[in-house]
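Ticket #4471: structure export looks truncated?
Reporter: QA, pipeline team
Priority: medium

Steps to reproduce: submit the single chain below to the structure queue and open the exported record.
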Amino acid sequence: MPVLPMIDLLILLGWTSLALGGVLKAVAITTSYRPEILTLGPLELFALSGICLLFALSLAARTWVKANEPEILAKQRRVSTMHSVARESADYGYAEPQRSESLQGTREPATTDGTGP
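Actual output as written to the record:
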């Protein structure tokens, strides 16, 4: 079942209920009449619009993630393979040799009596 028409329908329903809620609220503020559409007042229509728009957003995000999932999984497999190859080469002694402390520029502490090591 295609998701894009459902997302479009939810967006349309959300914006329509938001506009209707705004019109009902404007009528309620300017007159003493409290209008309702199918027993829904302005506050319920605003809540309905928020629910519809958030659900459309979550469906769109889920669809985007599902569409990009093969690429994401392929990148994760490449990184995992690179790490496992590096681990295997280190296990068999093919890794780069570690530098000794003398090559890294560390020095032994000097003695206070003037004698060398």
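Status: closed, not a bug. The export was complete when the record was re-opened. Leaving a note from the reviewer for reference: The chain has a mean pLDDT of 80.
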